[in-house]
Specification:
This protein is of the alpha/beta class. The protein has 70 helices and 48 strands.
Length: 1856
């Protein structure tokens, strides 16, 4: 598909870009960065199909090498944030008719359109082909941002700004701006369409915006999935470097799993490219001393391993769990009274909530009343575990137990908060706070752990240790089938198996029946059944590949009727999550749901309206990992996010916080625990049973599963992929070798007394170590590496301090915030400590300005702001020059474009760019500030001189002295502020240290303490003390001695101890110490309070009452008196008692809206100061929305003074509080009015309304609260309550039929109870509520009866015994369904059949189905397709007849299509004869053919369908009959033996192929038989003619085969012979052979016997003929040559001999080129060639010439010539020999004459006389043919003679 996608982006160092890395990645090559020595290697990626570097003509060709080019770019760009390259990515068409050449042409056209090369830029071009299954052909263009210099060797110093396109928009609608704005995508679209038109192609570009449904997803999704390749490669390199030994590999694996296999180790080293290294590392890891082999319970090897450390860790967890297990149930510490209360509350819950099932009731009861300290709840997803845990919390707190809820993740923690856990935290969070003193965990607390399956081993170890030391109980809740912990884990399953568990398996989350069925199936591991239900409901979406699967998912997601917040996409891998998020966003953009500018954050793009998922907790912002939000506004500097599910809105700078990503899709791991209406699950090969269970159980309404045929071929593979379990659990589920030995032979140490004592001692030591020594690594972390931006951060922090302190002082001085005062007064009031006095000069300037100007504060502030802004603004542009003037030349090596460093080691840093420009810091002295302080730091002086200097630098006019005075004092105030701040911080640290030391030293108060005596004897306080009231020894400096003391610790709102009170005591008397101040506070008290304790009763109500007392003894006295009263009468509600440690601290209490507060004040008299302070506190607390009452003792004094009266003290205190508490606790209006001091009479209307309300027993609590606020509010609430009741009564009447139906199912609520439950809801919701009551009652009724039927079926494995039970069950369900239908028909209501009743509907609508089920069950059993036990088990567990029928029918069909064919195949394989085999084949094929068109459940099995279709087609084609015929023919013709045929038939499934193969063998056999017959006839022939005749017949037969062979492909050799025979026939070769035969015989070349032998053995007629013909030709040549030789032999004269030799040469020359055969003997061919050459060279003429000359010169005689001519030499050889004789003759004559001439004698030759040798030789050269002379020797002699003559002349001259 051709699309217009085009993108441009920058490769910049500011975002981590590197030119070498990008160039190597695009080209898929290896490049070394010469600056860093890092090698970027992407050669393993094989998708680059074209690479080229395009250079301007004048640029040196060395830059064709991208390593040279990219390193040059890296060297050229010097800044840390430099842009290096521009990258264009172009989507190329993927149609088959678009070749690579066309794609290249499009890319080059795009480059030409942009004129990059012409403008001196370089372009690297790379084209990438798609990966398997993808279609994303694309091109990468890397364009330089600088031109090359004219030299062509380096880049210009300036960037090509004139060519720089301006990028607009986001990633999907990027465009560039040149002279006019041109959309980049449109430009690319136009280029493609032009190329298509040029080549006459019909293809056209499909724009993304035109057809988003088809193309909007995959383009972006593919880019997202491929976008992290470079980062992944870098991570891979780092990981390879880390995995350098076996220990590192072992550490990597065991970080996430306790049990591992060799496959896990191999997977861990998969990133290492070298195979040998991988194998070595795995061997090293397994050979490690810490590795332990694991065995199963039978002692068999499992090929699984663990380490000693892991085993020790898990055994310790089990020991710690054992310590906690032995603790008593903290809920039952209250005795039988607590047990009764718990049982009553459980019963109340059952009564009030009709959906509270028996299963949930049983689990709740076991968790609350179990005997042991560790209790476990296991339940399936959506079964109501969280609901049960909420009830555990409420009931436990009701009986006085401190409950803390913890979970492994923030998301799970929030779920606990939703169900009522006020104290909630993550496991790690709670443990760390506890360790740091920021959280209190009292003894006998209850710790509830939700999602316990996700808790890792390290967390379990520390959590159980803490629980054991504090005698706490632990409840673990989870699902062992869901996802386990990320870190090493698996202990939840072991703990639940070891200590037992309560279970809830009835799923309630899903609204539809099929949805619950699916969740249930996957929960129990019945994957096939679950997928069958999904497929039946058309919830599985199959596609061809990943892209198409994603596209359909996104299309469906986009079309969903649900809001975006109610739908979610789930995937296993992050790459798919990112791709799906990107695709979802593009749909939202196309639909106009995302607005504004697209902002890039960490590689992702965001717009207004985007949904995001928080991935990093940030306490300052108040967000946690897992929160969902919506982008309200987005810019590069600020994001505004609305957190979904709350009213919170946060703002932040995306550069400072980027812990979020898109929230349309998420991983399955993050979704655990969530419930979503509309769920889309993406599956792409990698998954498992835990992932599939979690993902396919998250939905409430809708669920779809998307997969593709590339990764998952069929349903069978899908079942296999979703059934895999990668989690191997804990090592404790296996045995070690040592344990097996121990089991077989118990150690001797325990058999002796000494051994038993030793073991006992070790156990005690082990217990102490386990409980009281925490794992050090848990709380201690290595200090993280220092960030590289230390300098910038220091400067930023300093700037913030400047702005927060000094500048605010400046503003205050300038605007004069104190009205009506002089400036000098303002200056004095600014500082709170060490107020500096103004000098006379300063006062003069200040007062002069004041008198002269007398400007308003607004004018003064505006002027100051303007001047300040102007000065600071101008200074920003001069920072670099000012710093240079003050500090000299900067350190260029350490400086960069953002900051300058000075000094050899860069000790001074100055920021020159950005918002903090001008800030500096000196690391050697730890000083810093702005430019003013830099001037004073370097030049000295004060603020005034610094300001004057800076004004002079920038040329700014001095406007007066006021500003300088202000600046000067501002500087002083800032220094003073810093000094005070440091002192306060030091003081605060000292306070915290004192508090912390006391906290560590303090111990519990008991009867051995002086504190105990003081409280018990001196103050008559006997009540239980809270954990914050302790005792310790305190050293009093003023006295110089230590005193025992009562210590009370105060906590702030967050629960942190900030300070407290110490009461110094006399150790002898037990009273307060006799010193000046025996009571002293420590630490910080303001806003912190001592929690004295709470008073709880068993009523179950949790009133919001807080009593605040001034003194500790007063608070304890009130607690004691009210606790005693509560135990006796039980009429006091839950009360919390605090001590304020001072009367003035009461008002600092952070009261909640509607909180009921009682101030327990001292009676110091009405006119006392304390009385007014208390009243003031009451008013302030009331202003916060609280109800506040003050209770004072009747007598003067405090409540402890009253308590000292042991007889009546408690009673008096109780009486003091009775009315207020009763009023606060009142839930009935009459009681409230009777207790209220300002009682008033109700009006008649109020009474009437109240009577009506009481008729229905409606709670009056809200009415009482309204009256407590104001009578008017009360009247309105009363009136409204009646109106709501009347509306509820009307709703009751409207829905009475529903409720009657509910009663038919056992509903027992009265009319009043129902009406009361309808209060506050409208008619529609009331109908829903009644409907819910009816439906829940029906479900309970069905559940109860179905459970009874299930009980009857359990344990019965006889089909006939189960049938009547199933029949009765189905009859019950049918009748129930029809009854429901009747009721619903009366109400004209659409009847949505409940899941458990669906079977009744099926049986009612298909009465014949039950009979079919029984028939299929009988057939399945009788056929042996399933055992009776399995069939009975299915009939017992499945009560839906259509599902049961589907299951049994599938099993029956499975037997029919898989097992039965196997049986028939087995029968075929065991056949003992050919006939039996044929019978078995016929039987098998007929059976398979009968299955054609009858596959219902396994039509997805392509192999099966293909096999059945083949059998059907073979039956229609009568292939069996053909096979049978071919088989018998084979036997008859003996083509195959019977054994061979039997073996063949045993393995026959494709009949056509088998009979075809046999038919081929038969045909071959027949042809070979005929040919063998011809061969035999040839051997018996008597004459050559007979042989020739037989050969002729054989050839005719071969020719006839051309058109008569049935299987030509199998007889290529015969066809080749046939073609040859045809050719020979056309050439009449047989006739030629016959003629040659006759000629050979007639000429006597061969005798008849020899010739017959050759003909009989002829295999190639043509060769035989050629051989015979060559013999004839050779014979004829030899006859002619013999005649010529005879003539030559008889010659008498040279002429006759020469004539014969000439004729011989002519004959041989005539043969040249005229031989029929070229393979005669070499000598003959050589002679022919020589004769031919001689003819061409006129050799005969030359021979005659030499012979004539020799004869004439008498060199030869006539006899000698005749002899030569008669020889066998050729003409050329004769010429050579005669010429040689002439040479020798002449040589002898010349030598003889020269000897004479040298002796000074004359010689005569040819009538001439010679005396000179040279003239003599010249005569020879000029008069004799050179061919007859030794011309070379003559020339040499002439040369020698000349030399000789010169020497003689020289000698003569010398002699002269």
């Amino acid at each position: 598909m051709a699309i217009q996608f085009a993108r441009v982006q920058r490769v910049s160092r500011s975002t981590g870009g590197n030119a070498c890395c990008k160039g190597a990645y695009n080209s898929r090559t290896k490049i070394k960065d010469e600056k860093t020595n890092i090698v970027y290697n992407f050669t393993s990626r094989k998708d680059n199909v074209y690479h080229e570097v395009l250079l301007p003509e004048y640029v040196h060709q060395k830059f064709k090498n991208i390593s040279e080019l990219m390193n040059t770019i890296e060297r050229t760009e010097r800044k840390c944030n430099s842009q290096l390259l521009k990258e264009y990515v172009l989507a190329l068409p993927d149609e088959e008719n678009i070749s690579l050449e066309l794609k290249k042409e499009m890319v080059y056209e795009f480059i030409r359109e942009n004129n990059w090369i012409e403008n001196g830029l370089v372009v690297q071009v790379d084209i990438h082909k798609p990966h398997d299954g993808e279609k994303n052909w694309h091109a990468h263009l890397l364009v330089t941002i600088r031109r090359f210099l004219d030299t062509g060797l380096c880049f210009e110093s300036k960037k090509a700004r004139d060519l720089e396109p301006q990028v607009r928009g986001g990633r999907t609608n990027t465009y560039v701006k040149s002279n006019e704005e041109v959309n980049l995508g449109k430009l690319w679209s136009q280029i493609q369409n032009r190329i298509f038109e040029k080549y006459g192609l019909e293809n056209r570009v499909d724009s993304i915006c035109i057809n988003p449904q088809e193309h909007i997803g995959p383009v972006r999704m593919r880019s997202v999935m491929n976008g992290a390749v470079v980062r992944n490669e870098e991570r891979r390199i780092v990981e390879i470097e880390h995995l350098n030994n076996g220990a590192a590999v072992l550490d990597k694996v065991t970080r996430h799993m306790s049990v591992f296999s060799s496959s896990d180790l191999k997977q861990a080293v998969k990133c290492i490219p070298d195979k040998e290294t991988r194998e070595r590392l795995v061997e090293e890891a397994l050979a490690g001393k810490s590795v332990i082999n694991l065995f199963d319970s039978e002692g068999r090897k499992t090929n699984l391993y663990t380490t000693i450390g892991i085993r020790v860790e898990e055994e310790k967890i089990m020991r710690l769990a054992g310590y906690v297990l032995l603790e008593k149930n903290v809920v039952l510490l209250g005795g039988s009274k607590a047990v009764g209360r718990v049982n009553q509350l459980i019963a109340d819950e059952k009564t009030s909530n009709s959906r509270f099932s028996d299963e949930q009731e049983k689990a709740l009861s076991q968790l609350l009343l179990g005997d042991f300290g560790v209790r476990v709840l296991r339940g399936r997803a959506g079964s109501g575990k969280s609901y049960i845990l909420g009830k555990v919390c409420r009931i436990s707190e009701n009986v006085g137990v401190n409950v803390i809820g913890v979970a492994p993740t923030h998301k799970a923690k929030l779920e606990l908060a939703k169900v009522g856990y006020e104290q909630n935290d993550t496991v790690k969070g709670m443990l760390f706070k506890l360790a740091n003193g920021r959280f209190s965990l009292p003894k006998h607390s209850l710790i509830v752990v939700d999602e316990a399956g996700m808790v890792g081993n390290d967390d379990y170890q520390e959590l159980l240790r803490v629980a054991a030391t504090r005698k706490c109980n632990v409840i673990l809740s989870g699902d062992e089938r869901q996802l386990s912990s990320v870190s090493r884990g698996g202990m939840f399953e072991v703990l639940s198996e070891k200590h037992g568990s309560s279970t809830v398996f009835n799923i309630k989350r899903q609204s539809s029946n099929w949805g619950r069925e699916v969740a249930s199936c996957f929960a129990e591991g019945r994957v096939l059944e679950g997928l069958t239900i999904l497929e039946r409901n058309e919830r599985i979406k199959w596609n061809g590949n990943t892209d198409k699967s994603m596209q359909e998912l996104l299309n469906n997601w986009n079309d969903s009727k649900y809001d975006i917040g109610d739908r979610i996409i789930l995937a296993v891998e992050n790459k798919h999550v990112n791709a799906l998020n990107a695709g979802a966003r593009q749909y939202l953009k196309a639909n106009g749901k995302l607005e504004g500018e697209e902002i890039s954050v960490s590689g992702n793009y965001y717009m207004k309206g985007d949904r995001i998922l928080i991935t990093a907790t940030n306490k300052e912002l108040g967000v946690i990992n897992g929160d969902l939000g919506e982008v309200i506004d987005a810019s590069t500097e600020k994001f505004i996010i609305s957190i979904l599910g709350s009213e919170k809105t946060i703002e932040f700078n995306p550069k400072e916080y980027d812990g979020f990503r898109h929230g349309y899709a998420t991983t399955i791991f993050k979704a655990q625990g969530a419930s979503i209406k509309d769920v889309y699950v993406f599956h792409d090969k990698f998954s498992g049973i835990r992932n599939s269970y979690v993902s396919l159980s998250r939905h409430i309404d809708e669920l779809r599963l998307y997969t593709n045929r590339e990764s998952t071929i069929d349903m069978k593979m899908l079942v296999k992929q979703l059934s895999r379990d990668f989690d191997k659990g804990s090592s404790l589920q296996y045995l070690t070798e040592e344990e097996i030995r121990y089991r077989n032979n118990v150690g001797e140490a325990k058999k002796t007394i000494t051994g038993r004592l030793l073991v006992g001692a070790l156990n005690v030591l082990e217990k102490v170590t386990d409980k009281y020594i925490p794992k050090s690594e848990y709380y201690n972390y290595k200090e993280p590496a220092k960030a590289t931006t230390t300098v910038e951060k220091v400067i930023d922090n300093f700037a913030l301090e400047e702005e927060a302190t000094g500048f605010s002082v400046e503003h205050k001085i300038a605007v004069g915030e104190n009205t009506g005062t002089r400036i000098s007064n303002v200056l004095r009031e600014v500082s709170t400590t060490n107020k500096p006095r103004m000098s006379a000069k300063e006062r003069f300037y200040a007062n002069a300005d004041y008198v002269r100007g007398q400007k308003s504060r607004a004018d003064l502030k505006a002027e100051w702001d303007r001047e300040t802004e102007e000065l600071r603004h101008m200074l920003k542009f001069k920072v670099e020059s000012i710093a240079g003037d003050l500090l000299g030349e900067s350190n260029k090596r350490l400086s960069n474009g953002r900051e300058l460093r000075y000094g050899e080691h860069g000790k001074i840093a100055v920021r020159i760019k950005g918002e903090k420009s001008g800030m500096w810091h000196d690391f050697s002295s730890d000083k810093g500030g702005d430019l003013f302080s830099l001037v004073t730091h370097v030049r000295g002086g004060n603020f005034k001189t610094a300001a004057e200097y800076l004004r002079g630098v920038i040329g700014m006019e001095n406007t007066g002295n006021l500003k300088l005075v202000h600046d000067h004092n501002s500087s002083n105030k800032y220094a003073s502020y810093q000094k005070v701040k440091k002192f306060e911080e030091k003081l605060e640290k000292q306070k915290l240290k004192v508090t912390s030391n006391l906290q560590v030293r303090a111990k519990e108060i008991n009867h051995n303490n002086v504190a105990y005596r003081y409280l018990r004897e001196g103050r008559n306080i006997t009540c239980d003390l809270s954990s914050d009231i302790k005792t310790a020894g305190v050293y009093e400096r003023g006295v110089g001695k230590s005193f025992p003391a009562v210590i009370a610790f105060a906590r702030d709102e967050s629960g942190n101890i900030t300070g407290g009170l110490q009461i110094l005591l006399d150790s002898k008397t037990g009273n307060k110490a006799e010193i000046d101040i025996p009571k002293k506070s420590f630490g910080r008290i303001s806003g912190s309070f001592v929690d004295v304790g709470s008073i709880r009763n068993n009523s179950g109500n949790r009133n919001n009452i807080t009593i605040i007392a001034e003194g500790l003894e007063t608070a304890l006295s009130v607690k004691q008196a009210l606790s005693e009263h509560s135990e006796k009468k039980g009429d006091i509600e839950a009360v919390r008692i605090l001590c304020s440690l001072g009367i003035s601290n009461i008002k600092n209490y952070r009261a909640r809206e509607g909180e009921k507060i009682i101030i327990a004040a001292d009676n110091d008299g009405h006119d006392s100061t304390t009385h007014k302070t208390i009243e003031n506190a009451r008013l302030q607390l009331s202003s916060k929305g609280a109800f506040v009452e003050i209770v004072r003792p009747i007598k003067v004094g405090d409540f402890n003074d009253i308590l000292k009266d042991k007889a009546l003290g408690e009673k008096e205190i109780q009486n003091s509080f009775e009315n207020v508490l009763a009023s606060y606790s009142a839930v009935i209006l009459a009681e409230y009015l009777s207790r209220n001091k300002a009682a008033y009479q109700l009006s008649d209307q109020e009474k009437e309304n109240l009577t009506y309300i009481q008729k229905y027993d409606l709670s009056e609590k809200d009415i009482v609260e309204a009256y407590r606020r104001d009578r008017t509010y009360g009247m309105l609430e009363l009136e409204q309550s009646r109106e709501l009741l009347e509306l509820a009564a009307a709703c009751y009447k409207q829905n009475k039929e529903m409720l009657l139906e509910a009663k038919n199912w056992g509903y027992k609520a009265s009319e009043a109870e129902i009406v009361k439950s309808l209060v506050g809801i409208d008619a529609e919701d009331a109908k829903k509520h009644c409907m819910e009551i009816r439906d829940n009652q029906l479900l309970g009724y069905l559940e109860k009866n179905i459970r009874e039927f299930t009980k009857q079926k359990t344990g019965k494995y006889d089909i006939e015994l189960i049938k009547p039970i199933v029949l009765a069950e189905q009859q019950f369900l049918k009748e129930t369904y029809e009854t429901c239908k009747t009721f619903r028909g009366k109400e004209n209501e659409d009847f949505e059949v409940p899941h458990s009743l669906r079977s009744g509907q099926v049986v009612s609508e298909q009465p014949e189905l039950l009979k079919k089920v029984f028939e299929v069950a009988d057939s399945l059993y009788q056929s042996g397709g399933q055992s009776e036990i399995n069939i009975a088990r299915n009939m017992s567990s499945v009560n839906e007849m259509d599902v049961l029928h589907t299951i049994l029918d599938r099993e029956m069909e499975s037997y029919n299509v898989y097992d039965r064919p196997k049986e028939l195949a087995k029968e075929r394989l065991h056949s003992d004869s050919v006939d039996n085999a044929l019978t078995a084949i016929e039987k098998e094929q007929d059976y398979l053919a009968s299955l054609d068109g009858n596959l219902n459940h396994y039509s997805w099995d392509e192999n099966l369908v293909e096999k059945v279709k083949l059998a059907s087609d073979q039956k229609d084609s009568k292939c069996f009959e053909a096979l049978k015929t071919a088989t018998h023919q084979s036997l008859d013709s003996q083509v195959k033996t019977e054994d061979e045929l039997l073996d063949k038939l045993k393995h026959t499934t494709d009949l056509k192929a088998s009979y075809t193969e046999l038919d081929k063998h038969i045909e071959v056999h027949n042809i070979n038989t005929t040919l063998r017959g011809f061969t035999e006839e040839r051997q018996t022939a008597k004459t050559p003619d007979e042989v020739i005749n037989i050969i002729s017949k054989e050839q005719e037969f071969l020719v006839s085969l051309r058109d008569n062979i049935k299987y030509p492909d199998e007889h290529q050799d015969l066809l080749a012979k046939s073609e040859i025979a045809k050719k020979l026939q056309e050439e009449k070769m047989i006739d030629k052979l016959g003629g040659a035969t006759k000629e050979i015989i007639s000429s006597g070349i061969k005798n008849e016997k020899t010739l017959m032998k050759e003909l009989k053995n002829t295999s190639d007629i043509q060769v035989t003929y050629q051989k015979l013909d060559k013999g004839i030709e050779a014979h004829n040549i030899n006859v002619n040559l013999m005649k010529i030789k005879e003539e030559k032999y008889n010659a008498k004269t040279p002429r006759d001999a020469l004539r014969a030799a000439h004729r011989e040469q002519q004959f041989l020359s005539s043969l040249h080129g005229n031989l029929r055969h070229q393979d005669h003997n070499i000598e003959l061919l050589h002679n022919i060639n020589k004769a031919h050459q001689s003819e061409l060279n006129k050799g005969m003429d030359r021979l005659r010439e030499v012979a004539g000359y020799g004869y004439k010169s008498k060199i030869f005689s006539e006899q000698e010539l005749t002899k030569h001519f008669k020889s066998d030499c050729s003409i050329s050889e004769l010429h050579r020999d005669l010429s040689k004789i002439c040479h020798n003759h002449h040589t002898n004559i010349i030598n003889r004459h020269l000897d004479k001439l040298h002796d000074n004698l004359s010689v005569r030759h040819d009538g001439h006389k010679f005396e000179c040798p040279i003239k003599y030789l010249e005569h020879w050269k000029n008069n004799v043919d050179h061919n007859l002379l030794p011309i070379k020797q003559i020339n040499q002699i002439i040369k020698q003679e000349h030399n000789r003559q010169h020497q003689m002349e020289h000698s003569y001259t010398m002699d002269m």
